[in-house]
Structures are given as structure tokens and as C-alpha cells.
Amino acid sequence: MAVQNLSRRKFLGSAAAATAAAVGSVPAFAASNSVAAPAKWDETVDVVVCGAGGAGLMAACQVVDKGGKVAVVDKSYSPYHSATRMCGGLFTAYGTKIQKREGAKDSWQDFARDIMVYGNYMSLKEPVELFAKHSGEAFDWLEDHGLAAHHLEKYAGHSNLRAIRQESYQGVDYIDVLTKEADKRKIKIHAGTPLTRIYFDAEKNQVTGIEATSLDTGKKINIRATRGVILATGGITGTPESLDFWVPSVAGKGVSIGCSANDGTAMRIAVRDVGVPLSHMQYIASYPCGIVVNGRNGPYCRFWYFTNAGGILINKNGKRFVTEQEGICHITPHLAMNPEGWHIVFMDKRIYDETRKHYKVGALIGLPAWNDERVEEEFKLGKNLFRANSIAEFCKLSGVDEKGLREQIKTWNEAVAKKSDLQFGRTNFTQPIDEKGPFYGIKMFPWNNLSCGGFRVTDRLEVLGWDLKPVKGLYAAGETVAGVHGAFYCGGNACGFAHTSGYMAGQIAMGRKDV
Q1: What does residue 446 show for φ and ψ, rounded to 5 degrees?
Q2: What is the DSSP letter of 466?
Q3: From CA 197, how far away is CA 264, in angstroms rounded?
Q4: Do residues 285 and 449 touch, judged by C-beta distance below 8 A?
Q5: Residue 407: alpha-carbon gap to chain centroid
Q6: Residue pLDDT tens, the chain, 515 long
């Protein structure tokens, strides 16, 4: 049979034509359960915000400040039961007043590039650039409204100094500001009353309002939104069950932590009622630093403070497996190749004591933060925190191979002496590990805490429908937005994006044009 010679240009042209024909043959879409309006509206507002975490409350405050009337419905019973509350207080932003006060050089283009690079170029341009451009506005709003003490710090994955850390190392500071400002604006939150239906006019391709149902009484309320509905309902890592349902690749593994309301139910409702697709659902933020203390619960260890002082990361074989300078989410995939999937931050007493001089124990082991008494209990228990006077004793307690660890310590100390790490190219050398001890170690597993998937949006945070055209009157903010982080989440961007997208969504819904 003769094979026709087909040039690349002709092939691409034919493929494009075939694709266009296929798309053109799709009938106008209407969600199977779409309902334009209920028999009666119980309330009419300019904007309905679904979710009362960092993104939702920020959006609600902006609606009011722009002269609008807002209603907030929330599955949780308090804004303090939210992902923002549970975060470590790190907020990344460009163009902030604190950057200007401290002379930090940065640009929104650098910020956007860092996000794209860290996420293996799997991020989406629209939400990334909106975040990079307007993050400083959002943070300054919080600072101007009484945000607690904070400082700039260097953070892996960010080429410039833009990571802002709360001195408390807790996201509660942001919620404190937002709840106070929501109260000032007399914003009513329907707590314990999650979204249960989105009213959608398929012919007009427009969302008209929502139904929410009380978890306590079962009473339904129908709220009409004349300007828009903002979905700020969080992600899918709230429970081990929801995480495993959405991301089978991590089923049964490591720590699963988050606000229990963040189970993806609201996303499924939007798919059902409006027909909007989901994207990037396979990506989650998984830190390589979870301490498993109760089933799949537990805090995480900020091991980088220990490694910056001279500690190393080892696996069960006693061997290093990555440069300790790597961004933390980039380390997580390496754990799958470690025996039993765990690793230990290993150090001598000098390194441990030096780190403790600079950081409170709650900053080192947090979310929820442990105090000194709890840390001492864990050292005595010897299941996750290890303290020993000799290498032999340390390995007996931790299950690490003694021969491998002795060889690794020798190799590492030689690298420190020569300022050359031939194993993984680490470049920060502070001090060698004292081969006489005492020794300390903290055992860690993946800590799954953030989803990177959700709805695709325009550069105005409008949710895209099946045809990649915006659905009128439907916006998304926070963890419900897809493609911000790409394949890997870079620290501080989740909290930063939540507040920035909420800030912008509230203003855009009320008519802001300059995005």
C-alpha cells in the first residue's frame, strides 16, 4: 500500500481542521440538573461568597468596601476552622510595603517566573499573573488593618526576598484581622450552612444564585446574587477519605491534614449544576516533613532550620538521598524511593542546640505546634523523635542502618572540610557532625496539606465552562482555583494566593477593571 508523503505543515493543518470540526459538532451544553431560579428567593444580594476562610472573608470585605451587599455561607462553624488558620503564617507577595521598607528588590515578572519554574511549568498563566501582580495590595490591606508582627525571610524556590512570615508562625493572625473587619462591616456568615445547589440559567450561561442548607436544622435558604457568586470553598485534603478519593496515588500514605470541610463537595456541586470541568486534580502539595503520631494525623517539622545549621537528611539505609537545599515539595517524590517511605533529619547536639537558640520549638514542630513538654515526651517515647549518646544507640532506636550512617557521617564531614558535596551538590556548609555525639533525629513522612486542582479561571477569576468560555456571574478564589502552583507548591504561595484572589474576586465582582 502506498504511503502518501504528508508534510508537518499539512499534518498540523489537517489536525487543526479535524479538531475544529469536532468542537463545532458539540451541541450547546446545558447541565442536566440546571435550574435558573427557585420558586422563591429568601434573600437578594450583590455577591454571594461560598466559604469563610482567608479567600472568602477577604472577598466579602472587598464587596462591602466597594459599596455592595454580600452574603456568606460556610460549611464550617467558624472561620478559625479553615486552611488559612492551619497554615504556618507564610505569605508570599510582590510590591509590599515591607519589601520597600527593607529595600528588597523584586518584580511581578520574577515572582510569576519563580512560580512557573517551581511548578515544572504546569501552572496556568492567568491566575499566576493575577497573583504576582496584585499580591502586594492584598498583603498591605491586611497590614493596614492591624496584622500582627511579621518579618521577611528567604525561602527556597523564591529568587527574591518576598516571603513574609508571621512571628507567631501561625495563620491565625490573618483570620484575626479578617473576622474583626467582617464584624465591623456587619457581614453575616451563615455558619454550618454549606452550598448545596448553584442556580444556573443554561440558556444565558449565567449563575443567578445559590441554595445553602443548614447542617443542624436542614433548613434551606435561597440567595440571589445580582453580580456574582464567588466559590472560595477550599480544596480536597481535609480528611484522609477525601484526599484518597480525589488523589488515589497517595491513598493510605503519610499525614493528611486540613480543614475537615475541605472535601471537594462544593466542586462536585458546581460540576453537577453548571457543568464546569475540573483541572490539575492530580497535583497536591505534599511536604516531606510529616510526623505521624495518630493514624494519618500529626504535625510537621521545619527540618530546614536544622539542616541550615548543619544537619543532614538520611533514609533508613543511613544515606543522604537529596540535597538538603532543595525546595521541600521537590523532596517529597524522593521519599517514594526510600525504604519504607520515610526519612530523618539527623544532627548532633551542637546543631540541635544552636537551632533551638534561634527558634521556639513551636516554630520547628508545628501545625499544630508542640510545646517543649510535648517534644520531651516524644524524645522519651522514641518512636518519631530520637536522642542517643552513640551511633549504635541511635540506630537501634530509629531503625537506621548503623554501617550506612557511619559511612555517611564520614563522607559528609569530608565534604564540609573541603566545601564540596560530591553526593548532591549542597553548597551551604556550616559545621561537621560530631562523630562522638550525642545525636538527635526526627522521623518524617509525606504531609499532604494542599490541593492544586480546581476550576480553570480567566485573568479576572471568572470560572471557565466546558468550552473554556467564562460562565457569567461565577468566580473562584483560593484553593478552588486550578493551576496556580502547577505540579509543585512553593511555600507561602497558597496563603498568598488565597488572600490575593479573594481580594481581587470581591473587587472584580463589584466592577473593578484594572487587572
Answers
A1: -60, 140
A2: T
A3: 14
A4: yes
A5: 37
A6: 333 333 433 323 333 333 333 333 333 445 556 789 999 999 999 999 999 999 999 999 999 999 999 999 999 999 998 888 888 899 999 999 999 999 999 999 999 999 999 999 999 999 999 999 999 999 999 999 999 999 999 998 999 999 999 999 999 999 999 999 999 999 999 999 999 999 999 999 999 999 999 999 999 999 999 999 999 999 998 888 998 888 887 888 888 877 888 899 999 999 999 999 999 998 988 889 999 998 888 999 999 999 999 999 999 999 999 999 998 889 999 998 999 999 999 999 999 999 999 999 999 998 888 999 999 999 999 999 999 999 999 999 999 999 999 999 999 999 999 999 999 999 999 999 999 999 999 999 999 888 899 999 999 999 999 999 999 999 999 999 999 999 999 999 999 999 999 999 999 999 999 99
Instruction: Decide: 59 and 232 in contact? Cβ < 8 Å.
Output: yes
**Bridge-based pairing state of the strands 220-231 and 385-388:** unpaired
Contacts of 138 (CB under 8 A, 6+ apart): 58, 93, 496, 499, 500, 502, 503, 504
- End-to-end, the C-alpha distance of the chain in Å comes to 57
One-letter amino acid identity for 395? C
Query: What are the respective helix, strand and coil percentages of the chain, to the nearest 5?
Result: 35, 20, 45
Domains of the chain: 43-283+452-509 (3.50.50.60), 286-448 (3.90.700.10)
Q: Are 175 and 80 in contact (CB under 8 A)?
A: yes
C-alpha span between 411 and 495 (Å, rounded) = 39
